[in-house]
Amino acid sequence: MFEKYIEVYSTFNTEKFFAAKNILANNNIQYKDTSINNQLRLSFNNFRGDNYLLSRDRTIRTTYSLSVKKEDEYKARKLLKPI
After folding, report:
1. For every one of its 83 residues, what pLDDT tens digit does the chain have, with 9 covering 90 and above?
2. Model's pTM, two decimal places?
């Protein structure tokens, strides 16, 4: 019923993230985007809007991640290793 997905790739770089997505798609490997967007957390920390510097210091970054089905894990890791 619920298939287990394993995280196989993680980066802070959007170009590498989209390259990894393309590699998986071109090899017919189903994936899920399991990225964590920290901007939402940042906006709640600055709910009143009185600390505009929170969004400009670049210490909070989005982690881009891809997960695949358990049976595709080995193949996906092998394809994504050069990135």
Report:
1. 578 999 999 998 999 999 999 999 999 999 999 988 766 555 555 555 555 555 555 566 788 999 999 999 999 999 999 88
2. 0.75
CA 21/CA 65 separation, integer angstroms: 10
Structure tokens at 75: 């193949």
